[in-house]
Write a structure and sequence with these properties.
It is a single chain. The protein has 353 residues and is mainly alpha-helical. Helices cover 63% and strands 7% of the residues. It is built from 13 helices and four strands. α5 runs antiparallel to α7 and α7 packs antiparallel against α13. The radius of gyration is 21 Å and the shape is globular. The chain starts with a helix and ends in a 12-residue tail after the last strand. This is DMT family transporter.
């Protein structure tokens, strides 16, 4: 049984953990929305994420803990710029503009398009393997999210709805481009994204008339941002490393359900038929994904890259002198052909007939 399901670890727990933290940030942010402008809060959340991860990085160095993750390379910079642009600047900006021009019900439903955009781009553009079971599971999870956010009103595809759909497309692009960076240090990437995107949103919010709240609210928003955006993003990128964009995005689509459950616990919201139906649909989708067993003979072409690893079946290179594991360094993979269960991780992005 361990051999059959070992490919689920650690990618699936990381993706689910990311969804839990991000989902928890929604009801916690709701507690602050009465006192902080929504756009300004978005900036505070992202800046809090960036500063919190910077503190983690600096603290690690101060106590002498080595950073075993691979650093960003020059070749990563264009991808990083695009990730910050689409995921940190355009996505939130389009969302805010859209929410101001459409109903809350339409906005909530349309936000579920992010999961579809992520999977569609991964499948059609980056050629990730997406089989029938994965599609059915993702559709069940997304259907659960749609049921959860539906309040009986008509969905309006007005200019606001189109802007929200564009925001979801931006985040779908962001999620897939982030996969290109998944071999590098996720803390470094999330820190840069948080600081740049958060500062941009703060400046724009103040330019459009938002006023800064008191220090207590800023600290509270920063803490929510550190956990719900920063740590969640780090776990999401680690999930991408092991699962690929389509599967990580599908697991992440559970976040609205997590937020709804916490809403029941924090605000005393009623346990509705919608919540139960969404839970059933998402549970079916989660089971379909966990039961996926993609196993076939496949060929690894020669490859050179740098990332955190241990000496397993895919890493059989030699070292000059002693070393500890895990570690990161530039290494070469010789051609290899074998068979085992796998996801489209760093070493399994081959094509399928």
């Amino acid at each position: 049984m361990i051999d059959k399901h070992r490919h689920l670890w650690p990618g699936v727990p990381l993706a689910l953990g990311s969804a839990v933290l991000f989902g928890a940030s929604a009801p916690l942010s709701k507690l602050l929305l009465g006192s902080i402008d929504p756009w300004l809060l978005a900036g505070v959340l992202y800046v809090g994420a960036g500063l919190g991860l910077a503190a983690v990085s600096w603290g690690r160095r101060l106590i002498g803990l080595p950073n075993v993750e691979a650093p960003l390379q020059k070749a990563d910079i264009p991808w990083l710029v695009l990730v910050v642009l689409f995921g940190g600047v355009l996505g939130p900006l389009l969302l805010m503009l859209g929410l101001s021009r459409t109903s809350a019900s339409s906005g909530s439903l349309l936000l579920n398009l992010e999961g579809l955009a992520t999977m569609g781009i991964a499948w059609l553009v980056f050629r990730e393997n997406v089989d029938r079971r994965l599609l059915l599971g993702a559709m069940a999870i997304l259907a659960g999210a749609a049921v959860l956010s539906w309040n009986g009103e008509t969905l309006h595809l007005d200019i606001g709805g189109l802007l929200i759909a564009a925001a979801c497309l931006s985040w779908g692009i962001d999620n897939n481009l982030t996969r290109k960076l998944s071999s590098a240090d996720p803390v470094q990437i999330a820190m840069i994204k948080g600081l740049v995107a958060g500062t941009t949103n703060l400046v724009l919010a103040i330019m459009f008339g938002a006023s800064l709240p008191n220090a207590t609210l800023v600290w509270a928003g920063s803490l929510v941002g550190f956990l719900g955006v920063g740590v969640s993003l780090v776990m999401f990128m680690l999930g991408l490393r092991h699962l690929g964009a389509a599967r990580t995005g599908a697991y992440f689509s559970l976040a609205p359900f997590i937020g709804a459950i916490l809403g029941v616990l924090i605000f005393g919201d009623a346990v509705t038929v919608q919540l139960v139906a969404a839970g059933v649909l998402m549970g079916i989708g989660l089971w379909l994904h966990l039961a996926e067993h993609h196993d076939h003979e496949h060929t690894h072409e020669a490859l050179e890259h740098d990332h955190l690893h241990v000496h397993d079946a895919h890493h059989q290179h030699i070292h000059d002198g002693p070393f500890t594991e895990p570690h990161s360094h530039w290494h070469r993979h010789a051609p290899l052909r074998h068979r085992h269960a796998h996801y489209p991780d760093l070493h399994h992005r081959h094509s399928h007939d």
